[in-house]
Design a protein that fits this description.
By secondary structure, this protein is α/β, with parallel strands linked by helices. It has a single domain, classed as Metallo-beta-lactamase, Chain A. Helices cover 23% and strands 21% of the residues. Strand 5, helix 2 and strand 6 form a beta-alpha-beta unit. Helix 6 runs antiparallel to helix 7. The protein is globular.
Amino acid sequence: MAILSAMDEVTPDLARLRHLFVNLYLFGDARGWVLIDAGLPGAADEIERAAEERFGPGNKPLAIILTHGHFDHVGALGTLPQKWDVPVYAHELELPYITGKLDYPPPDPSVGRGMMALMSFAYPNKGIDLGDRAQALPDDHSIPGMPGWRWVHTPGHTQGHVSLFRDQDRCLIAGDAFVTTRQESLYAVATQEEVVHGPPAYFTPDWSAARLSVKRLHELAPEIAATGHGRVMRGQEMRDGLAKLVEEFDIIGIPDQGRYVPKAG
């Protein structure tokens, strides 16, 4: 099977696996690790290959953690939770979308801004059903299998979207609360052009909540931003970009038009 993924290191204990146009992450070491998000449909083989390379053959994760349940973040969950016999953790508000009870609002190709947005009418919005493998993240904001990390509720892109943060090195796994490329643009996605950008506009139904979530993440003062789409960014360039996104969110983040875009006046 063709290799569709590439893996690089974010920190010594955190790796990014890029599968086509979306990122997922592997945290930990051979003594215990977790998978964060699960890529597009068809990603399972690539994830297993990356896990074997990083942690050794047959080394199953302790858990799978979801930032949210959109189709490009749960693609491998049709097989991996059962094969590994592990729980899948998400925010309580996300559980209906991963236990077969609700579907996501449909994508909005009318937001424009590029070919990825225009093609979004074809992106699935149907929820998945993980049954009793789906578990709510702990109320104390800890993350199973990730000591030293905490989850932060960052709604807007979805109701139950979460980001993951480690205070020790100020490493942020932001999911799609913000991204580091213009995900609506096929050219930007292909070239991985780096820019701190709002959540993918074609799949964001609540812009008021999205604005507040970006502000909340900026207030954490991250040093490393590992997002659901785009390259990992760090240091001054990332901090300046995130500050600009907060200050100009209505211009940079919110599209000029769209079914979920607040109407002027």
